[in-house]
Each structure stands twice: as C-alpha cells, then as structure tokens.
C-alpha cells in the first residue's frame, strides 16, 4: 500500500493544518487507519482492530455491494435532484415502506446535522411557533441551530442557553432524577415536559417541537421508560408542537427487533418528523428527513423552495439503496438481535464479577456499560473508563467512552456485520 506520509508526519501535518477542536480518538496514542473491511480496521503496519467505535459502517466497512453500486452510478451520472431520476424516488419509496404510513414525505440532505436543521425549519413553519424542548445531555448536530438545542455541547462551551430552548430532564431511570425505585418514572419524566410547556405559555412562548433521540446515544445510552414518548407527544401536540425523533445514530435496524428505534416504544407512538443519517450511506454522506404530508405542505406554503445541491443525488441514492438491500439480504436486524443479545448476556456476567460495572443496558447492538466507583451512589468512574478503552486498544478492540460523565463504554457503535465473529 502506498502511503504518503509516515505516521509521525501525518500527525504533525494534522496538528498544523487541521483545527485543534477536531478531536482525535486515543489522543495520547492516535491510530493511523489505512484500510478497512467488514468489522475490522487496519493500521499502516497491517495491525487489525475490531471496530466497535464507528457508528456509520453499518453493513461493514467497504461492503462490496455498496462500493459496486457507487461505482456503477458514478460512471453513469451524478447530478442534482432537479431532474427526474429513478434512484431518488425508488429510495424514498423503499424508505417510507419501513416507516408508519403517515410518514411519507422525504427531504434528502448530506448529514445528520443538516437533517435536524431542516426538521427544525419544518417544525417552526408548521404552526409558526419558535421554541424547542430538548433533553438534557442531548446532541443533535454541529450547526449553529443544533448546538443551541444540544446541552451536551452548549453546556461545555461558553454558549448560554437561548431563551427559546427548554431543557427537560433526561428520562434515565438508572442515573436520572427519577430512578427504577420511583413508583411511576414514566409519568414523572413526562410531567416535567408538561411543566416546561406550561411555564413557556405563562411567558408568552409557543412550542414548535420536542426533539429527542429515540434512545439517547452520546448522552449516556439511555432507554426512556415505556410510555414516556406517548405522553410527551400528547402534551407537545396539544401545545401545537411536533415530535421530532432523531434516528441519526440509532436507526436502520441497529436495535434488531425494529427497523427504527422509536418503534420500540409501541405501535401507538408515531413521531411527526424522523431524521436519519450515519448508517444510511455506510460512510457515504447521505441523510434524510421524513415527515407527514400535512407538515410538508405547510412548509411548501411558505413559498420558499428547498434545494440541496447534493441531497438525494443519483450516486447517494444508489449507495443508500444498496445499504437497504444488504440490511435485508444479510438479515442484519436478526443479527443485531442475536449478537447484541449474546454480548449483553456476556456483559451481565462480567457485571456479576466486577464491581466497576454499575449497569449494562441496551437493545440489539445499542449497548452501554455504565462504570461506577460505587454501586450505591453510582459515582461515575471516568478515569477507569479511559483506562479500560486504552487497555482494550492494546487488545486491538476499539471502543469509546461516552455519556455526560464519559464513564459509559459504548458498544452501540458496533457494526452489525460482526455476525461474522461467530457467536
Ligand atoms: C444523535 C445525532 N444526531 C445528529 C448528529 C449529527 O450528524 P452529522 O455528524 O452527520 O452531522 C449526530 C452525530 O453524531 C448524532 O449522534
């Protein structure tokens, strides 16, 4: 393999020319990755790493079917969506078939951030409301509009919370305000949202949207209690707002039993807007917002057209179609259930042996391990989590520590292709 620079030179050039706020994995000893296949990545010396860190290479790195689809379409045509083309409509049709019927209108973008930004525009245009309720520790993207609704980010920086943003407590029954010993955490957490709405109304403000990941990922691998989203949706809609489900990280069958994580919350829960990205293109930048006809028509009635130079182009759509095919043909949802279940079982056995493990939670291949210094107080074991990820790296397993206290080991990023690990 022809390498342009030695690892040291690459690092030096990166330090010189790439913005210092662009963080690198394993900063104390970064890895130079030169190629990848399936669930493995390889460094410049040919060392193989098991990749549990990428949340994008959903069907496995460089899947031949995906690569082939991209090459074939690139040879033929790439242009914007102002021309009629089969790929974009075929993809929209197939995507909508995975969603509840009322979610039938797609807008294509190039990243999850763009998708969430557009979702906010749709929500605000719908009834002319402005305010957004978001969950504590949430991350929804890097655009200005999204940093504003991402406590995970704005709490770290110097950005103050904007007056049109309301932060609801994260519905975390392990570490949150109402825990598993509470009589009714579902209602208690949903009532917090209701209170926020009432308070906003008292101040003459109007709610445009509630936004949440269907399961909070970076914010600590949190699975909301059953029925929480239904109650929240009821309160938000009564206030004239819409429910935005951010599936950028947790969609496309990662949870196994369902294609979308919001479906885990029951058939009676259907968001008004769903955003998606990351796994959608398996590394190729393609993302999407899906909404109802009613919301799409309200957006159109503003008279402002939506145009995105690259969104939904024939190549991106071909890639996304190939990803859907692979998920289906290789039964990756079944795989997420089987491998995820097996991994969770093993981790629970480890929990019985190691006091450092406070909680193991997850579904399918969305799994978090909450490390604690003591079980009773659930004090986050942040330094220990760092130690573990560096030790795992020595064993050639790439993991990250995440969550508000950076004490959660996340295996949710594991590619479903890890079925080839043979359980
Ligand atoms: C839940 C969630 N939403 C949105 C985004 C933003 O996506 P992108 O980085 O593609 O802009 C991310 C990225 O990490 C995410 O995790």
TrEMBL record:
Subunit comment: Homotetramer.
Family named by the database record: Belongs to the class-III pyridoxal-phosphate-dependent aminotransferase family.
GO cellular component, one term: mitochondrion
Organism this protein belongs to: Myotis myotis (Greater mouse-eared bat)
Primary location recorded for the protein, binned into one broad class: mitochondrion
Keyword rRNA-binding appears in the UniProt entry: no
Pfam families for this protein: Aminotran_3
Mitochondrion among keywords: yes
Protein name in the entry: Ethanolamine-phosphate phospho-lyase
InterPro entries, alphabetized: Aminotrans_3 (IPR005814), Aminotrans_3_PPA_site (IPR049704), PyrdxlP-dep_Trfase (IPR015424), PyrdxlP-dep_Trfase_major (IPR015421), PyrdxlP-dep_Trfase_small (IPR015422)
Cofactors: pyridoxal 5'-phosphate
Domain of life: Eukaryota
Alphabetized GO MF terms: ethanolamine-phosphate phospho-lyase activity; pyridoxal phosphate binding; transaminase activity
EC annotation from Swiss-Prot or TrEMBL: 4.2.3.2
Catalytic EC class: lyase
């Amino acid at each position: 393999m022809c390498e342009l620079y030695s690892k040291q030179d690459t690092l030096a050039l990166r330090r010189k020319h790439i913005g210092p706020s662009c963080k690198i994995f394993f900063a104390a000893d970064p890895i130079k990755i030169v190629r990848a296949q399936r669930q493995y990545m390889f460094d410049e010396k040919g060392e193989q790493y098991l990749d549990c860190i990428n949340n994008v290479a959903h069907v496995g790195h460089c899947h031949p079917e995906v690569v082939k689809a991209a090459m074939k379409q690139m040879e033929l045509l790439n242009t914007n969506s102002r021309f009629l083309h089969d790929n974009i409509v075929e993809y929209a049709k197939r995507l909508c078939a995975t969603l509840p019927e009322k979610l039938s209108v797609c807008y294509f973008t190039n990243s999850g951030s763009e998708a969430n930004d557009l979702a906010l525009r749709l929500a605000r245009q719908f009834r002319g409301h402005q305010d957004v309720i978001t969950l504590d520790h949430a991350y929804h993207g890097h655009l200005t509009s999204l940093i504003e609704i991402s406590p995970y980010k704005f709490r770290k920086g110097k950005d103050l919370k904007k007056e049109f943003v309301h932060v609801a407590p994260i519905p975390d029954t392990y570490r949150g305000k109402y825990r598993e010993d509470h009589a009714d955490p579902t209602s208690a957490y949903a009532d917090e949202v209701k209170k926020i709405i009432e308070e906003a109304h008292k101040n003459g403000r109007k709610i445009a949207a509630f936004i949440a990941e269907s399961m909070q990922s970076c914010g600590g691998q949190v699975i909301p209690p059953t029925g929480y989203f239904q109650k929240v949706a009821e309160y938000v809609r009564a206030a004239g707002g819409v429910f935005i489900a951010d599936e950028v990280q947790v969609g496309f069958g990662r949870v196994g039993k369902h294609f979308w994580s919001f479906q885990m919350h029951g058939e009676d829960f259907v968001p008004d807007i769903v955003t998606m990205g990351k796994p959608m293109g398996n590394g190729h930048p393609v993302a999407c917002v899906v909404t109802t006809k009613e919301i799409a028509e309200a957006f159109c009635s503003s008279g402002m057209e939506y145009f995105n130079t690259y969104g939904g182009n024939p190549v991106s759509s071909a890639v996304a179609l190939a990803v859907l095919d692979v998920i289906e043909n290789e039964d990756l949802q079944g795989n997420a259930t089987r491998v995820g279940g097996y991994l969770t079982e093993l981790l629970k056995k480890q929990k019985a042996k190691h006091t450092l493990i406070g909680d193991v939670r997850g579904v399918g291949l969305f799994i978090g391990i909450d490390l604690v210094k003591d079980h009773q107080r659930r004090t986050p074991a942040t330094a220990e989590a760092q130690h573990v990820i560096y030790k795992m790296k020595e064993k050639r397993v790439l993991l990250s520590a995440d969550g508000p206290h950076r004490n959660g080991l996340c295996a949710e990023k594991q590619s479903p292709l890890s079925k080839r690990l043979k359980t």
